[in-house]
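Data availability excerpt. The first of two example chains:
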Amino acid sequence: MTIYFEELAVGDEWTSDAYEITQDEIVEFAEQYDPQWFHTDPERAAEESIYGSLIAAGFHTAAISTRLFVDCFLSDTATLGGKGIDKLRWHEPVRPGDRLSIRADILELEVETDSRGLADIRIETSNQDGEVAFSMIALVMFARRDED
């Protein structure tokens, strides 16, 4: 059953399954989109970086978080896409072998038009130790039910 805007409520919450990030994936993403040495060179990152190891690019973590959000919730909805992101933050570095999962909850709902509503949805991505690595508030548009 497709979930429309009218079925959403402030406080609704979803959690995802865990996703394990690999060193190869971190390097591959970074080589294409953020080729800084602490994302692409494991040996140098271990020796010279303030993190003590290779870390994932921030937008790689954001992309994984988005995928987890789609898998645990958005794929079952009448989503119309995103309108923006507020309060995007990277709290802890993501390292090879980390198991990431998200918790998402609705903070606010607003009817925008007769056919569309907007939900402010907080997404927090945590690692296997429960540390929040990433957070954002996604502004997601949803279709409203046709009253006919």
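And the second chain:
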Amino acid sequence: MPVENLARSDVVTATTDEPIHELAATMRDEDVGSVVVVDGDEPVGIVTDRDLTIHALAERTDPDDLSAEDVMSDDLQTIDHDAGFYRATELMSERGVRRLPVTNADGELNGIITVDDLNELLADEHGQLAEVVRAQRPPY
């Protein structure tokens, strides 16, 4: 199954110059744990709630002096929209990430898929398999 069928298309985004207090407010208001940083339509980084904690609080940096560019993970791992579910799990494992921005053939942001999305899919699949087993199991 291609990740474009699983990914969320309503990605929360910001520009590199967005102040981190606005990023935090956006995460709160949108009830998300990350914001994809874009340059035009192309993803260039991601800021997670953990990034905000590490860069602003743990390093005792004045939050008013920080923008998305200062705290974002700029070694961004993305996944092509037509890549499969298994490739997404491989990339997450290899790169130690929980979120993958999904890009189209032109490298433009198309969506985002998270480890929670993949876990939900697996749980649904396990539930369907359990129904097959229950239907074929003899009564006790």
